[in-house]
Design a protein that fits this description.
alpha/beta; Rossmann fold; 6-stranded antiparallel beta sheet; 22% strand
C-alpha cells in the first residue's frame, strides 16, 4: 500500500503530524551537527527540548542571506548522527546567483537528491503535465552549476518524459561547438515539437519573436514554464499571443517562484491560483513582519520565510528569501492541494528605485515593456547625465531591439507606455541584438540596470 500523497490525501491534522515527524528528525541532526545553528542556539540558550515541533518554530531566529553567504559551509550538516550513508554523501552543489562576490554553494546529499526528484515531479503534477508531454529546456549553462538548467533535466527524469536541452548561447570559448545561436534554438524547437517550453520569460519572448521572423511554427506547444524574472499579467497575455501566432492552438503559461534554497519553485496550478508549495513534507513557508519578524495573519503581506523540514546537506531554518507576499494555508479551490500558497506576486522588500525623484517599481516598468509587441528585447538603464557625477540629473535610457523597422511614432508610444507605468519618460535608443547590453548577461536577465554610483 502506497503512502498518502502529502498534497492531496491528508487533512490538516494528518499533514501537521507528517511535517512534525520530518522536522523532528531534521532538528535532531541540526542540534547534533549543524555548525551555524548550534552556535546560534547556544548563544540564545536554546536546547533541543525547547523546540517540541513546528508550533515552536517562531522561537527560532530568522536567517538572512547575509548569514548564509558569510559562511556557507557552516550551513552544511556534519556526519554526526547520520543514520544512512546517503545522508552525508554529496550528490551535487548548486550556486546562488549573488550580485557581487563569488556565488554561494548549496549542497545536496544523496538523500536530498531523491527529495529533489520528488519535488520536481510534484511541480510538474501541479502544472498539469501528462505522460504525453515533452520538455524543451531553454536554460543556458552557467559558469557555476545552477539549478535552472540541471533541475529541468531532473524533472523530466522524475516524471518519465523526454527532454531536449537547447543550450542557448555560447557555453565556453574552449568548446565553441557547444551551445546554439538563437536561430539554431528556433530550429531545435521546431524539430523536437516539444509540448513544454521552459525558461526565463525574456528568452521565451525573444525565441517567439525570432521564430515569427523566420516563419517557423510551434503548433505542438501547449505549456510555457517561466521562472527567474518578474512576470506580470500583461506579459503573460503578450507571450500567449505570440505563441498563438506561431500555431499553438491553446497555450498556457505557468509561472514559478523559484529559489536555489528549494532546488525548485512554488508553482501555479492555473493562472491566478497562487504559487503552491509543491512538497509540504519538505518545506514550510511563513509570512512575517519584515521588521519585527512577528507572524502576520494569512492574507496579509509579509516577508516570506522558508524552513527545510527534511534535508541533510545545506539546511536552513526560517530563511528570509528577500521577498514579501501574501500567504494562505487554505486548500487550493482549483486543484485541491493542501499546502501553503503565495496569493500575490512576490516582490523585493527593498525593490523600489528612485529616478528623477520618483520612486519606481521596476517590475511595473518591466511588465509594461514585456507587453509591448514592438519590442523583441530591451534593457532600461538608469544613469547620470554626467556619468560618475552624483549631482547631475538622472536619465532613463531604454535600449530596445524592435520587432520591425521602427518609426518615430513607435518610439513615442513605447516611451509613453513607460511613463504611464512608472512616471518617468525614457529616451528610446534602437539597437540590434548584437549591440544590446543584454548580451552575455547570464541565465537571468537584468531588464533594469542602475549604473549610478552609490
Amino acid at each position: 500500500m502506497s503512502a498518502p500523497d502529502p498534497l492531496f490525501d491528508l487533512d490538516e491534522a494528518g499533514l501537521a503530524a507528517l511535517r512534525d515527524a520530518r522536522f523532528a528528525a531534521t532538528l535532531d541532526r541540526i542540534f547534533a551537527a549543524h555548525p551555524h545553528y548550534r552556535r546560534r542556539f547556544a548563544a540564545a540558550g536554546l536546547r533541543r527540548e525547547h523546540i517540541r515541533g513546528l508550533a515552536d518554530l517562531a522561537r527560532l531566529p530568522v536567517t538572512t542571506k547575509a548569514d548564509y553567504m558569510a559562511e556557507p559551509d557552516a550551513f552544511r550538516l556534519g556526519p554526526e548522527g547520520a543514520a544512512e550513508p546517503e545522508e552525508t554523501v554529496v550528490w551535487d552543489s548548486m550556486y546562488t546567483t549573488g550580485s557581487s562576490g563569488s556565488p554561494t554553494p548549496f549542497v545536496s546529499t544523496g538523500y536530498d537528491f531523491l527529495n529533489i526528484l520528488a519535488l520536481q515531479r510534484n511541480m510538474l503534477r501541479l502544472r498539469g503535465v501528462t505522460a504525453d508531454d515533452s520538455i524543451l529546456n531553454l536554460f543556458p549553462l552557467t559558469r557555476h552549476p545552477h539549478g535552472a538548467f540541471a533541475r529541468a533535466m531532473n524533472a523530466a527524469a522524475a516524471f518519465g518524459i523526454p527532454v531536449t536541452a537547447a543550450l542557448p548561447g555560447q557555453v565556453s570559448p574552449r568548446q565553441p561547438g557547444i551551445g546554439h545561436r538563437l536561430d539554431e534554438v528556433v530550429a531545435i524547437a521546431a524539430r523536437t515539437r516539444a509540448t513544454i517550453l521552459w525558461g526565463v520569460p525574456s528568452y521565451l519572448r525573444k525565441l517567439a519573436a525570432r521564430a515569427e521572423d523566420l516563419g517557423a511554427t510551434l503548433p505542438a506547444t501547449r505549456l510555457l514554464f517561466v521562472t527567474g524574472e518578474g512576470f506580470g499579467e500583461d506579459a503573460r497575455a503578450d507571450l500567449l499571443d505570440r505563441l498563438r501566432r506561431l500555431g499553438a492552438p491553446d497555450p498556457r503559461v505557468s509561472v514559478s517562484y523559484g529559489s536555489t534554497e528549494m532546488q525548485g519553485g512554488m508553482v501555479e496550478c492555473t493562472a491566478g491560483s497562487g504559487y503552491h508549495n509543491p512538497s509540504p513534507d519538505q518545506f514550510l513557508f511563513e509570512a512575517v513582519d519584515p521588521d519585527t519578524h512577528a507572524p502576520v495573519p494569512d492574507g496579509e503581506e509579509g516577508l516570506v520565510l522558508l524552513t527545510h523540514l527534511d534535508r541533510r546537506g545545506t539546511v536552513m531554518l526560517r530563511y528570509a528569501l528577500g521577498d514579501v507576499a501574501r500567504l494562505t494555508r487554505a486548500r487550493c479551490p482549483h486543484c485541491g492541494a493542501l499546502t501553503e500558497r503565495l496569493t500575490s506576486i512576490p516582490h523585493r522588500v527593498d525593490g523600489l528605485v528612485k529616478i528623477k525623484g520618483m520612486l519606481v517599481n521596476p517590475q511595473a516598468l518591466v511588465d509594461a515593456l514585456m507587453a509591448e509587441p514592438a519590442l523583441a528585447e530591451f534593457q532600461a538603464v538608469v544613469d547620470k547625465d554626467v556619468p560618475g557625477d552624483p549631482l547631475s540629473m538622472d536619465r532613463l535610457v531604454l535600449h530596445a531591439v524592435p520587432t520591425a523597422a521602427p518609426d518615430p511614432d513607435t518610439a513615442r508610444r513605447v516611451a509613453d507606455r513607460v511613463r504611464r507605468a512608472c512616471g518617468v519618460t525614457p529616451t528610446v535608443q534602437w539597437t540590434t541584438p548584437a549591440d544590446t547590453l543584454l548580451a552575455g548577461r547570464g541565465w537571468k536577465a537584468k531588464p533594469l540596470l542602475d549604473l549610478r554610483t552609490p
